[in-house]
Structure formats: C-alpha cells, structure tokens
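A note from the maintainers: we've had questions about how concatenated examples are separated. There is no special marker in the raw files; a new sequence line simply starts the next protein. For clarity in this README we add a label.
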Amino acid sequence: MVFYILIYPSEIIEATRSGILLWANVVLPSLLPFFIGAELLVGLGLVKFIGVLIEPIIRPIFHVPGEASFIFAMSITSGYPIGVKLTSNLRKSNVISQSEAQRIISFCSTSGPLFMIGAVANVTL
C-alpha cells in the first residue's frame, strides 16, 4: 500500500479529500442528532427508567439488564454506531459487566433504517 501511495500521490490525496468530504457532509449530519439525543436521554435518566420497566422481559430472553432495551431500540432506529457507543458508556459506568456488554453488542450492531436513509440514500441521489 505504501508503494502505491508513493507512485500515485495525487490520486491518494484526491481520494482522501473525497472520503473526508463524504464523511463530513453525509455521515456526520445523519448520525449527530442520534448521538446528541441519546446522550440527552441517558443524562435525563430515561434509560434507567425504561430499564426498570423492561428488565422482567429482557433479562430472561437475552440475559442482560433492562437498560439494554434502550440500546436495542436506538440501534434498530439509528444503526450500529449508536449501539456501540451506548454500550460502551454503560460499560464504562459499570452498569453492565463485560459479558453483558458483549451480548448487547451481538444484537445491537445493525444498520438502522434511519442511518441507511440519511447516509446511504443521500450519497446515491
């Protein structure tokens, strides 16, 4: 790969520029509202509230705490970046164990329809 960078530097610079512009103009605007909204809901304590209500349902099925239901809902709607981010936040705050985090990641790493519409469909138009 370094060999091709040395041979075709102008193409590499243009491809890098194109990739950064794509990320800044398409991916970031489609994900930023979900990151902000999720952090607000976590900060307001809504995740804890939902976790208490949903725990009797989600614990026997997936063997994870009720807070995972919020992560699952956000992951289905917005996509895998937010599922991983929220799982990481819960793990860092010691709400979930490492094995629970691994289980949550296994079913919360999906490409959500809103991300697909916001990012992928926007690129093809």
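[label: protein 2]
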Amino acid sequence: MKLWISIFLLILSVPAKAHIDKVTVDKSKRRLYLIDNNQVVREFRIALGKQPIGHKVYEGDQRTPEGIYRLEYVMEDSQFYRSIHISYPNTDDIANAKRLNVHPGGDIKIHGQKNGEIKSSKFLQSFDWTDGCIALTNEEIDEFLTLVEQGTPIEILP
C-alpha cells in the first residue's frame, strides 16, 4: 500500500498536462530525463552496463548504446521486473557491426531490478551492473511506464 501511495505522489509531481515528447539519457551523469516541450518534467537516477564508456559495438561488450532510438514494446515477463525494449540496433549500428564482422546484439531495455534480487534498490542504483541496459528501481519503472508511451524517441548521450 505504501508503494502505491509513493507512486501516486510521484505521478502527481509531474505536471498534469505533461506529454512526454522524448526521453534523454545522460550516461556520464547516470540520469534519465523525461522531456515535455523541451522542459525536463522528471529525472531518474540510473544504472548502466558494466562498461559504460563508449557506444555499444557488439553483443556482450556490456556497453549501453549511444544515439537516437525509439521505445518499442513493454515486457512484463522476463528476468527483470517490467521493462520496455529500445530499438537498438539501428541501421548505422548494424552497418558498423557488419564492417567489424561482429554481431551488434539487440536485447537493450529500460528495466527494473532483476527478479528475486534481495539487495536494496538504493544499493543497486549506486553502481553500473547491467549487461548494457538502463536500470531503474521497480517503483521507478512502474512510474516510467505510466508516463511514457511506446514509440517515444529516446536519445542516449555519452
């Protein structure tokens, strides 16, 4: 019950007329921003891939991609508490991987904590632990998914 009250209060903190035009991730600051009409309406602390510096090049490099993508479909049934898929790789990523003779990967998402995780969300969000995804707390991914529609552009900055 306390969780739902917290989520409700967080949602109320976003202006009622907010329509999220874009999601921006600043990897260097470990922040994800929800943008409405060029204004930040919500900010989240994030965790990234274990090798956060640089653009994702190949499957297994543990890097989070950089560039402009789209938020695609929501996954309710995976090894993580709720997630939304990011449209990585784009045509440039595929061409670059082909040129390097590697597989670009592709299972990049914004997600909550790993199912069954017993460590606190506050602890987990204090370091980069994913294989290349963008992690929020479970409460934050719930809020995120109520505010952001599928198809919304996401810009991931270095």
